[in-house]
């Protein structure tokens, strides 16, 4: 089957979703995903971060789809044409989704364990706007211990349901789920029960934000000060394949290994996660290959970073001539010539990849 | 003119809620006719011919929905009746079930036979326990008379009918949330596709239809699809139950032939009898609280000056710019004592409360809009709040899993579209506007 995403065409197996196809092409055209999580069955479709425009349904029926569709659960048809970062409506909607997700999410990144690994941080950085229009009171919750190892900070939860699916699919007796409706909905355990089974710790790894925290690691460090290494052990309960997070010589955290999209490859047991914190417990394999999106990857916020086209266009759309706002006639300021400015901004519809250049370069060019 | 009565022909008869009286007045003849003289496909064919459209809100042709039902070998099929009816302003199904329960039971049998379902469910709004009991009694009577259970009328066809009280949430009326709830889970809508016709109850092919839709099928079987299609206008065939409420002289449930002029429905003595004495019509929500609100003048005339009719097409004429929707038939009339801002806030409170909270635009957006409306209504709004509401509504609309997001956005967007000056008045005259009973008297178009 052929599918074209942001003007790039590839062949995929029947049954592939738009998101999976886009991930095959690469991170430049892969839609953001907050609730979809490939290893978890039935995940996706909820956060609406991954909405894309289908401008042609298939070769047979080339009509565009009337609404934006969630790419994580929409299967491709032969000859489908999809617009992601090159579609105005998609980008505008994503701004809205970020705004909705942040409406009741405290920006406590400075004290949140997830800072630097947070999908919501990345999503807002790439697709959001700087200011919120929300003036109302935000909802608050008490922190809640879900057993000895996990603490729930419900204020940060974006109700992606990933932890619910995890508990449902990989732990035996599920005691936690969603209570109440709408923005009163909350993740909770049944009458404040503890989550006590050997695989409960995995809910921490799947949480895209810092709502579920590892009590053996809370406030111990910032992720960019740590060094991850791959390690394994002989574990009778799980694969024993983990990432150890070092600060100096000390193992301060153990997590499952994740792929490029931040998804766990093998779920690990609580003993490996919470109790094996000595180097002697492990056979070290070598440094973890750090995903591009992580803040600990070199120059995440530095030069030569890949910037999606929309960010450049956003910057361009907010660019103002100095004398638009004040009288500068006496200052003799030279403006960027308009033709040159135009050349930097590819119009919507042009290949996203061709259009990708960093803001850094743009600034330097100037 | 003698009015066609399909659902309400016998509702005035004393004792019609009992099997005996219902049977004496022609009840269960449709079951006999269908099971003894027609194949299931022939029943489906008649329903298709009738052109009847779903009466639960979306107005999807019922026969077409039935023909989409997948029929894999060895897999059960289900018919589920949506009797959740929680749309504010809509109360026709409730009235129909308590008044003439056997009409629904008979319709369920005929429809289940047509669809090849051997177990069917009536999912009743949880608050209506007394209706659940009425239906259970009716089912027991029908079963005792041999119209339900094993080997109905000696035909070899088996059908069990169950009544299930709902989860007590508006969202459980959305068909996929209803199925989740019926399966004993939290009433969260499912992502579509797959549609229930392919994977519905317990992942088996399922048809979900509204009480009123299913209740028409006995008449269609008895009189033929063509006879049904002869009533009404264009693609709006047959009759429709309207739950009329608000500032009307005679609110109530009416069975109208589709195509009746709106003017006549409101003002004629046969129907609502006009607006209460000394008052004039200001605005109407024509199809339950989720459909766009229309100012009186726009409700009575379409964009090109023709009389607007009570039909799917005519009510929607001109799209959302000048039209609205038939929806579930919840007709709420408001006279000049109604404050549109307060009304909009009130609707908004409902959708905020009822959002299931799965998808972020609806979960967060409905609460946000409600809070902004609350502020405006209570004299703390600012001018940019109006555009903010329009923009938030736009960001929700079309971007959610189920149509509740749209249902929350449309009333607000349409109220601002048609009554913007009223919102502005609230913001610029907070002291005046927040007085109890205060209503904007500016450019109001009364009829
Ligand atoms: C939030 C929401 C609530 C709904 N509530 C009801 C309801 O209470 N009763 C109903 O018949 N349909 C309701 N519907 C429509 C159903 O999803 C579905 O379209 C209908 O039951 C199909 O029956 P019909 O084709 O006979 O109209 C609701 C839809 C939404 C989105
Ligand atoms: S706690 Fe985390 S994983 Fe669970 S629903 Fe909330 S955001 Fe998602
Ligand atoms: S639109 Fe609202 S009610 Fe419907 S699934 Fe999304 S959150 Fe739930
Ligand atoms: S990732 Fe697709 S809707 Fe959440």
UniProtKB/TrEMBL annotation, chain A:
Cofactor annotation: [2Fe-2S] cluster; [4Fe-4S] cluster
GO molecular function: 2 iron, 2 sulfur cluster binding; 4 iron, 4 sulfur cluster binding; metal ion binding; oxidoreductase activity
Record localization: Membrane
Gene Ontology cellular-component annotations: membrane
Xref: InterPro entries: 2Fe-2S_ferredoxin-like_sf, 2Fe-2S_ferredoxin-type, NADH_UbQ_OxRdtase_ferredoxin, NADH_UbQ_OxRdtase_Gsu_4Fe4S-bd, Prok_molybdopt-oxidoreductase
Sorted UniProt keywords: 2Fe-2S, 4Fe-4S, Iron, Iron-sulfur, Membrane, Metal-binding, NAD, Translocase
2Fe-2S ferredoxin-type domain ranges (all copies): 1-88
Domain named 4Fe-4S His(Cys)3-ligated-type: residues: 89-128
Pfam families per record: Fer2_4, Fer4_Nqo3, NADH-G_4Fe-4S_3
Coiled-coil stretches: none
Family: Belongs to the complex I 75 kDa subunit family.
Protein name in the entry: Fe-S-binding domain-containing protein
Automatic annotation (TrEMBL), chain B:
Any one GO molecular-function label of the UniProt entry: 4 iron, 4 sulfur cluster binding
One GO term of the biological process aspect: cellular respiration
Superkingdom assignment: Bacteria
Presence of the UniProt keyword Transmembrane helix in the record: no
Family matches, as InterPro entries: ComplexI_51kDa_subunit, NADH-UbQ_OxRdtase_51kDa_CS, NADH-UbQ_OxRdtase_suF, Nuo51_FMN-bd, Nuo51_FMN-bd_sf, Nuop51_4Fe4S-bd, Nuop51_4Fe4S-bd_sf, SLBB_dom
Reactions performed catalytically: a quinone + NADH + 5 H(+)(in) = a quinol + NAD(+) + 4 H(+)(out)
The protein's required cofactors: FMN; [4Fe-4S] cluster
Annotated coiled-coil segments of the chain: none
Transmembrane residue ranges: none
SUPFAM superfamilies hit by this protein: Nqo1 FMN-binding domain-like, Nqo1 middle domain-like, Nqo1C-terminal domain-like
Role, per record: NDH-1 shuttles electrons from NADH, via FMN and iron-sulfur (Fe-S) centers, to quinones in the respiratory chain.
NCBIfam families: nuoF_fam (TIGR01959), PRK13596.1 (NF010120)
Name of protein: NADH-quinone oxidoreductase subunit F
Native species: Siphonobacter curvatus
């Amino acid at each position: 089957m052929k599918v074209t995403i942001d003007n790039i065409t590839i062949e995929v197996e029947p049954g592939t979703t738009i998101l999976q196809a886009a991930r095959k092409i690469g991170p430049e055209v892969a839609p953001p995903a907050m609730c979809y999580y490939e290893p978890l069955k039935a995940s996706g479709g909820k956060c609406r971060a991954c909405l894309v425009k289908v401008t042609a349904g298939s070769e047979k029926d080339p009509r565009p789809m009337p609404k934006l569709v969630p790419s994580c659960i929409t299967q491709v048809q032969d000859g489908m044409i999809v617009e992601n970062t090159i579609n105005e409506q998609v980008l505008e909607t994503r701004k809205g989704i970020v705004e909705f997700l942040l409406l009741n999410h405290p920006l406590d990144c400075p004290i949140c364990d997830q800072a630097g690994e947070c999908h919501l941080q990345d999503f807002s950085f790439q697709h959001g706007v700087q200011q919120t229009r929300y003036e109302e009171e935000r909802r608050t919750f008490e922190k809640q211990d879900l057993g000895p190892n996990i603490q729930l900070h419900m204020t940060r939860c974006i109700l992606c349901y990933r932890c619910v699916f995890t508990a449902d699919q990989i732990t035996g007796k599920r005691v936690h789920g969603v209570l109440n409706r709408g923005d009163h909905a909350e993740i909770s355990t049944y009458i404040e029960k503890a989550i006590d089974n050997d695989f409960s710790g995995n809910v921490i790894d799947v949480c895209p934000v810092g709502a579920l925290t590892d009590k053996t690691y809370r406030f111990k460090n910032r992720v960019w000060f740590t060094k991850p290494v791959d390690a394994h052990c002989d574990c009778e309960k799980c694969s024993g394949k983990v990432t150890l997070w070092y600060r100096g010589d000390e193992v301060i955290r153990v997590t499952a290994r994740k792929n490029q999209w931040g998804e766990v490859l093998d779920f690990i047991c609580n003993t490996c996660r919470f109790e094996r914190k000595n180097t002697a417990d492990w056979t070290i394999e070598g440094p973890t290959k750090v995903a591009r999106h992580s803040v600990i990857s070199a120059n995440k916020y530095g030069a030569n970073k890949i910037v999606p086209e929309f960010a450049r266009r956003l910057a361009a759309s907010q660019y103002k001539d100095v004398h638009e706002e004040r009288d500068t006639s006496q200052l003799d300021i030279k403006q960027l010539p308009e033709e040159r400015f135009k050349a930097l901004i590819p119009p919507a519809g042009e290949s996203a990849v061709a259009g990708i250049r960093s803001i850094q370069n743009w600034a330097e060019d100037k | 003119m003698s009015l066609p009565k399909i659902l309400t022909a016998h509702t005035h008869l004393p004792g019609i809620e009992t099997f005996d009286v219902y049977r004496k007045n022609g009840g269960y003849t449709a079951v006999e006719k269908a099971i003894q003289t027609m194949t299931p496909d022939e029943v489906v064919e008649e329903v298709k011919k009738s052109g009847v459209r779903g009466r639960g809100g979306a107005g999807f042709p019922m026969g077409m929905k039935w023909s989409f039902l997948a029929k894999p070998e060895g897999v059960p099929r289900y018919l589920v009746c949506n009797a959740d009816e929680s749309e504010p302003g809509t109360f026709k199904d409730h009235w129909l079930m308590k008044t003439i329960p056997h009409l629904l039971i008979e319709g369920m049998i005929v429809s289940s036979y047509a669809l090849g379902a051997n177990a069917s469910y009536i999912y009743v709004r949880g608050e209506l326990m007394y209706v659940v009991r009425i239906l259970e009694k009716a089912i027991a009577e029908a079963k005792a008379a041999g119209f339900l259970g094993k080997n109905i009328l000696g035909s070899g066809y088996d059908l069990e009918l169950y009544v299930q009280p709902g989860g007590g949430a508006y969202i459980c009326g959305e068909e996929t949330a209803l199925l989740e709830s019926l399966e004993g889970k939290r009433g969260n809508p499912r992502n579509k596709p797959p549609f229930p016709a392919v994977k519905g109850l317990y992942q088996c092919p399922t048809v979900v239809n509204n009480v009123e839709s299913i209740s028409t099928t006995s008449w269609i079987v008895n009189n033929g699809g063509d006879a049904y299609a002869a009533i009404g206008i264009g693609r709006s065939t047959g009759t429709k139950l309207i739950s009329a409420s608000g500032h009307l002289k005679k609110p109530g449930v009416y069975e109208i032939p589709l195509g009746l002029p709106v003017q006549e429905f409101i003002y004629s003595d046969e129907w609502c009898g006009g607006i209460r004495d000394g008052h004039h019509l200001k605005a109407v929500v024509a199809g339950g609280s989720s459909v766009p609100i229309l100012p009186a003048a726009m409700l009575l005339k379409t964009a090109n000056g023709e009389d607007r009719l009570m039909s799917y097409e005519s009510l929607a004429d001109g799209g959302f710019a000048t039209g609205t929707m038939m929806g579930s038939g919840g007709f709420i009339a408001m006279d000049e004592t109604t404050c549109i801002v307060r009304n909009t806030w009130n609707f908004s409170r409902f959708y905020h409360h009822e959002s299931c909270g799965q998808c972020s635009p609806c979960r967060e957006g409905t609460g946000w809009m409600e809070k902004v409306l609350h502020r405006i209504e209570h004299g703390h709004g600012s001018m940019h709040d109006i555009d903010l509401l329009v923009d938030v509504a736009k960001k929700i609309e079309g971007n959610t899993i189920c149509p509740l997001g749209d249902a929350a956005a449309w009333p607000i967007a349409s109220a601002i579209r048609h009554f913007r000056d009223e919102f502005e008045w609230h913001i610029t005259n907070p002291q005046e506007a927040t007085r109890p009973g205060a209503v904007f008297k500016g450019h109001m178009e009364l009829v």
